[in-house]
Amino acid sequence: MALKEIEQLAQAMPSNTKYSAMIAEVYMKRKDYKTAKQYYDQVLQANPDDPYIHFSLAGLYKKMGDNERGLDEMHLAIAQQGLPCKEKLHVLTSYFVDTDLRGQTVKDALDLTETLYAQCPDELEITGFFASLLLYDEQFDRSAEEMMKYIAQ
């Protein structure tokens, strides 16, 4: 389906946000972040509790160089209860994949991961990721404690 046709569907059915989200992703791939944001805003307005829109906005803001707003959106997405913990971890790790985890960046990653870990303390992958971030942050004793939990499971 051509982009123009999807745009027409989005205009004809604004309550069905999947079309606006699809269009936003096309514009993200084209690096037209301003237009992508307009479509993401339509999705957000229609469904502000959708965790996917907050993950998408986090990625948009990061690409635009607005890390503070990106992190704010990540916090909103992680706080949502509508997604499984492993899916949240996947998106969280994707957000930081091309990032040098030092200084404030590792602290930001730790803060988000700690929030997720509090929601999902029994998820083995989250425990391991959390322990590795603690190691990056040179919190060696705490990292060792979390690694022991990881190994014990």
Gist of the model:
By secondary structure, the chain is an all-alpha fold. The chain has helices at residues 3-12, 18-29, 33-46, 51-63, 67-79, 85-96, 103-119, 124-136, 140-152.
Topology:
Elements: H1 3-12, H2 18-29, H3 33-46, H4 51-63, H5 67-79, H6 85-96, H7 103-119, H8 124-136, H9 140-152
Written overview of the protein:
The protein is elongated and about 55 Å long. The chain has helices at residues 3-12, 18-29, 33-46, 51-63, 67-79, 85-96, 103-119, 124-136, 140-152. By secondary structure, it is mostly helical.
Name a few traits of the molecule.
single chain, 153 residues, mainly alpha
Task: Determine the mean pLDDT.
Answer: 90
Main beta-sheet annotation:
none
Number of helices: 9
| Quaternary structure classification | single chain
Q: Regions with pLDDT < 50 over 5+ consecutive residues?
A: none
Number of strands: 0
* Structural class by sheet pairing and helices: mainly alpha
Rg over C-alpha atoms, rounded to the nearest angstrom: 18 Å
The ordered H/E elements are HHHHHHHHH
Overall geometric form: elongated
Helix content: over 70%
Distance between the termini: 47 Å
Indicate the proportion of strand residues: under 5%
